[in-house]
Amino acid sequence: AVFGMLRSMTGSRWRSALVAALFAVHPLHVESVAWVSERKDVLSTMFGLLALWAYGGYARRPGLGRYLLVAGLFTLSLMSKPMLVTLPFVMLLLDYWPLKRTTAWLALREKIPLLVLSAGSAIITVIAQHASGAVQPLGNLSFARRMTNALDAYMMYLVDMLWPLNLVAQHPLPASLPVWRTGVSVAVLAIISALCVWQVRRRPHLIVGWLWYVGTLVPVIGLVQVGGQARADRYTYVPLIGIFIMVSWLLPAAAALTKPSRFRIGAIATAAIVLLATLAAFSIRQMAVWKDPMTFWTAIIDRGVNSTFAYNNRGSIHVREGRLKDAEADYRKAIEISPTHAEAIYNLGNVLNDQGRQEDALDAYAEAVRIKPDLAEAHYNRGNIHKIRREFEAALI
Q1: pLDDT value of residue 270
Q2: Is the dihedral of CA 306, 309, 312, 315 positive or negative?
Q3: What pTM was computed for the model?
């Protein structure tokens, strides 16, 4: 779909093929394909790319039937996953390049029904996320903190794209970011933006690719914080297409600087083959992380990520496999990282109880319910210990 969409719009076979190949083999995209829960990501992207492909046909020969096809495919994409609410924005970029549609008002006006679909999908998603408790209240995470994390995420996704050696499936949201790191992010993003604007007439693909990357990341960049992650590899599935467009259309320009000219095609082909082979090797390595839950959580821990969730979840695997001491160590590490994580404290209480250390287990349950008074399981297990010990008054509390 990536190749067909770009090939139909640009007429460039090999550059479109390179974008498609980068999209297919980059290690950052392993998560979306390997994680069964993210098959919705693949499905949404497929319908979104087909919508863009259909839009190219509509732009060349406008008609109601073609427009309804675009709207229908876009609707299927949003129904699969609301990640691509910014697709009408991408269509406007493609109107500028490579479609070169000169009637700006017409191009904007025909996007209105699609923007209505985007708005409806966004509203439904926010309501659903609020209802599930996934959205972090603004009081828990200030707008300034969200903004600095967003800038950092934009920068780190580019770093991971260029150096995908130690990818992890979870990046916990840090309590704060160093001022220097935020400054570097702002400087790098500003320089890239300035260069794209400077080259807007000579190389319009640069500004289109860059704004594709920036714009399609907006729904998941953290301004509306969902969950406790700072960023996630799966969020780059569509946005990196914009960067790949920049790279693929720049390679021939860079090769043109070499002499003699008969070596230019060979230089481009060699660079592309080496790049794709390297990325494929990294992807194979990254796929091994998804072998089983123990490998998955251990990989996160071994790569130096202080993740409460990783230690807590690996501890639960240890419990299922009868390694109570290992489970206790992981639960204690999870609590050390996040002392108010009620679930990890509750799980520690269970492990201590299974080892016959009832007093320690009672202390853990008491701390868990202090942090989360509605944690019914902790109340129940604490009551059972008191019942076994014939402390009936305490069991009733």
Answers
A1: 83
A2: negative
A3: 0.89
